[in-house]
């Protein structure tokens, strides 16, 4: 009997390597960023064609109305880029520090502190200008985050992820109660505050951007350099200590960058939700758990979401606008629910 000749198995297509996936994801992020910037400059109540857009940027004519529209949208686009990059970078770092996939600026009481400071400035000092809101919001956000970290640091174990989350939730609830008490008793304060509270990048000129730009750049520099620190913390406190890392000091450095970024971004654009929460999960899909890659790509992808939300808000309710903070909440919540249910995100 002749022996059966084995039939060679069909080759199984090789899975794309991590490097190829990372390269493809980076190219897509950069392409999306360019497209979002172009849409932010061209789309609105008065749309502008691509050719006119290029002319307005390369050969500006003050007498041309379309050119003037493009130039007027540049500060708004710049505010979206800076705010989005800050929120994405801070969100990724915050999830790494807290080792909590649901971490966002609210977990450190940043939004609550900024909001209460703005309410106090309106009610007590009579401040109604954006330039005043910026400094009030920044100081309030920084003070609230510092208070959370100090409370969480009490005890032998220091600022553990669970204690940070609990302290942040407790402070957010307390500050929110005080803020609501003030707003209920003052209609004028409520009217002035509600326009800042929804979160928006419209009406932010170069003056407002210039006031927070030094803080944004400093926060980005500090946070972008914490990739290896966050990789160590993601292994757990005991493992990080065994590798020679000073856990308390590492968390303090990361928290400093997060506070500066969140405070400056919240001061500039108001409390915008879901950007810092959703973006790191999307980035992990093609970078893996390495924070040296997650941080810079989160800073590049987050402005895409924020600018896209701002552009969508300009056209869904013409001739009016829907603020970017409302659009990010409407679009970000379903995406995040899908990410959680799919269980495909890499571990923290």
UniProtKB/TrEMBL annotation:
It is a multi-pass membrane protein. The chain crosses the membrane at residues 74-94, 106-127, 133-152, 164-184, 255-282, 294-316, 322-340. Pfam families: FecCD. InterPro entries: ABC_BtuC-like, ABC_transptr_permease_BtuC. Keywords: Cell membrane, Membrane, Transmembrane, Transmembrane helix, Transport. It comes from the Bacteria. It is found in: Cell membrane. Belongs to the binding-protein-dependent transport system permease family. FecCD subfamily. This is Iron ABC transporter permease. It comes from Arthrobacter deserti. The lineage of its organism: Bacteria, Bacillati, Actinomycetota, Actinomycetes, Micrococcales.
């Amino acid at each position: 009997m002749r022996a059966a000749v084995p039939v060679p198995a069909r080759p199984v297509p090789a899975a794309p390597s991590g490097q190829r996936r990372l390269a493809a994801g980076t190219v897509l992020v950069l392409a999306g960023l360019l497209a979002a910037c172009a849409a932010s400059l061209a789309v609105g109540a008065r749309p502008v064609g691509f050719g006119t857009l290029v002319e307005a940027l390369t050969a500006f004519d003050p007498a041309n109305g379309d050119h003037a529209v493009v130039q007027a949208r540049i500060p708004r686009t710049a505010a979206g880029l800076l705010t989005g990059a800050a929120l994405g970078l801070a969100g990724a770092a915050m999830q790494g520090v807290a080792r909590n996939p649901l971490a966002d600026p609210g977990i450190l009481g940043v939004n609550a502190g900024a909001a209460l400071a703005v309410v106090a400035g309106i009610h007590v000092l009579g401040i109604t200008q954006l330039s005043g809101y910026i400094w009030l919001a920044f100081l309030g956000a920084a003070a609230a985050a510092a208070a959370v970290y100090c409370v969480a640091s009490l005890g032998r174990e220091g600022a553990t992820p669970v204690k940070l989350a609990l302290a942040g939730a407790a402070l957010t609830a307390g500050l929110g109660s005080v803020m609501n008490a003030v707003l209920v008793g003052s209609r004028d304060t409520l009217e002035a505050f509600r326009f800042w509270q929804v979160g928006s990048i419209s009406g932010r000129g170069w003056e407002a951007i210039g006031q927070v730009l030094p803080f944004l750049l400093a926060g980005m520099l500090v946070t972008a350099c914490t990739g290896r620190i966050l990789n160590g913390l993601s292994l757990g406190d005991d493992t990080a200590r065994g590798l020679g890392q000073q856990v308390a000091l590492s968390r303090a450095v990361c928290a400093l960058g997060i506070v500066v970024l969140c405070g400056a971004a919240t001061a500039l654009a108001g409390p915008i939700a879901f950007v810092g929460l959703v973006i790191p999960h999307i980035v992990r899909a093609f970078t893996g758990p390495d924070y040296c890659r997650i941080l810079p790509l989160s800073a590049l992808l987050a402005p895409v979401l924020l600018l896209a939300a701002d552009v969508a808000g300009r056209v869904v309710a013409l001739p009016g606008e829907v603020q970017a903070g409302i659009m990010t909440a409407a679009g970000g919540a379903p995406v995040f629910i899908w990410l959680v249910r799919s269980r495909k995100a890499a571990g923290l």
